Amino acid sequence: MTAAAISNNPLRAGLLSARANLLPGLIVQSVMAIIVAMYYLYAPAHAWLLLVADAKARYGFGFSIAGAIVAGAFVPELLRIACFQHGKPRVENARNLLFTIPFWAFNGFMVDALYRGQALWFGTAVTSIVIVKKVLVDQFIYNVVYAAPVTAMGYHWKNEGYSWANARSWFTRAYYAERILPALVATWGVWIPLVSLIYALPSLLQTPLFTLALSLWVMIYTWMAEQHS
Predict the structure, then answer these.
(1) For the chain, where are the alpha helices, taking DSSP H only?
(2) What's the distance, CA 70 to chain centroid?
């Protein structure tokens, strides 16, 4: 789809992206669903996941920040080096990390803060009504107001050579419609089921499961992006 077409019909652009995301989204959702089922139905997996929960309790925000850095920063660069650069690191990999490490560290903190806040607002019971409330806040408030705009603006800024020349345009309705709304529509198709699964686990396992989902998602999309570059 051309830039002009996207500008004229951002919702259609988002739906086309959602269709392109269908297979990788189903892969990640299936893995997450298996993990949630194993937590409740398979004793050895339940015991192992309790160890993960203990680690999250021990290290708190540090656990979430480290996990997000691994998932959002190191995983794509390592995959890029191993699969598409013949195992040879380049200067551009280091340059990418200079942006992605602090970016995903902060977003790991923010996701953890969101999950903690939701636990305070709605409680920690794993019931249908609690899960629905958390999913709605996650995807239609946090994602709409913060996550999608910050990600779009952050990577746009990086791809533009860290220039602030057009920063004012990022806060316009046109920018939101052209760049953020299509990403939101595409994201909802994958992440509404994913966060539903995440909130179906106890609080201490929610951030680790998010990190795993993010890792798988980034790996798949790094592979797809490099295959088509």
Answers:
(1) 3-8, 10-20, 22-41, 43-59, 61-69, 75-84, 91-122, 128-137, 148-159, 173-175, 181-198, 203-227
(2) 12
Contact 226, 80 (CB under 8 A): yes
Q: How do residues 97-153 score in pLDDT, each as one tens digit?
A: 999 999 999 999 999 999 999 999 999 999 999 999 999 999 999 999 999 999 889
Mean pLDDT to the nearest integer, 17-23: 65
- Taking only Cα atoms into account, the Rg of the chain, rounded to an integer number of angstroms, comes to 18
What pLDDT sits at residue 223? 62
φ/ψ of residue 84, rounded to 5 = -125, -5
Residue 226 has pLDDT above 60, yes or no: no
What is the three-class DSSP state of 149?
helix
| DSSP structural state of residue 167 | G
Q: Phi/psi at 90 (nearest 5 deg)?
A: -125, 165
Q: Is the pTM above the cut of 0.90?
A: no
